[in-house]
Input
Amino acid sequence: MEKANVATLADVETYERVPLEDRMPFQNTYDLIRHGTSIDPEAPALSFILSGEDYKNALRVTYRELFENITRAANLFHDLGVGPRDVISYLLPNLPQTHYVLWGAEAAGIANPINPLLEPATIRDICLAAGTRILVALGQVPGDDLPDLKAVVRVLGGNDEKRNIYGFDEMLPSYPGDRLASGRIISPEDRASMYHTGGTTGTPKLAPHTHFNEAAMAVMTAAVSDIWQGETTMCGLPLFHVNGTMVTGSVPFSIGAHVLLLGPRGYRDPTVMQNFYKIVEHYRAVSFSAVPTILSVLLDIRHLLPSVPGLRGGAAFRGALSTLRGPQRHEDHRGVRAHGGHLRLFSQPPVRRTQDRLHRPETALPADEDLHRGRGRPLCPGGRAQRNRVRVHQRPQRLPGVPGRTAQHGTLPPGRMDQHGRPRAPG
Output
């Protein structure tokens, strides 16, 4: 796929003259994986390490194996009665099987990733709200509280068909990996997934994605990301969150890049953090995605940083610097600089803040605050996204502290909207 050269506002306007659909070689996630596979079927798609201490011993999955196992998972779910409108919820750590389940669920029906660390009652409520038909989890998981549940699928567990419990790894090889047995033609407008919100400001809510939403996100992110075919990106964020599944999942898969899964617990594994720079050096990783607390830990152990050529940065949420207290925490140290929510290793032009205003080079895009005031436009080519807005919740729910406003159509509190009624970009 074509990379976007968007150094100036004129570059953005030039890029937007071509409709987004014309830039997309796929419009659903199954074809996204197929497209990445077609680039080089024998190239590594996934590598999985069990822990940071054993980082040199990785299970490697080629693109051919990835696509075949995703197809087999879709056929398994179809055989269990899943149709395009049925929901497969999963409670899984970061495993290769998690990717098979996620993208296989989207090819057969609708995926609903759930944080397994939530309270059991909250997990139950999410499953009920989603209308879960199949639950995928590790080991034994009771489903008595889910009246619509048809079956439980166990990853790394065996069959107990009398109780409608099926062993994922045991059954997967028995299904074809070269075609969807359902014969399904996936429409861009079909629902692909539902991701729950974090629940930090109230009860988690489900945000539905269409196949076009996720395919477009992969195309646009890949166009502006500094990662290329064959290069390695590291995934330490959980595969129940869109950052983990897309920024370090569908985006690299769409271009034939290599994803290194940093163990079942990801960044929560202390041995991964202790050996982080050794892992980077061993796998020649060029990027990773993280949250501010992870960047803070990495700066605390920056004295362990070897001479690793090529690592270009870790995308993170804005505000990372707020966690880096002290004037020296975000200055150069053996090539490390954290700024604007990114961790950069090796030379990069600095971005500095003066009195809370972000200063960029003269050739850069307008600052976020300028976009909020209508000066300049965010990168959203083609206009299709306006017609495919993600609705936050199907049923009206009152937003806390905002009388009369509901989340039925993704309505946001006044401070989150611009003067035209559009959601503001984060920043």
Q: What stands out?
A: The two ends are 28 Å apart (CA to CA). The chain has a mean pLDDT of 77. The CA atoms of residues 218 and 250 lie 6 Å apart.
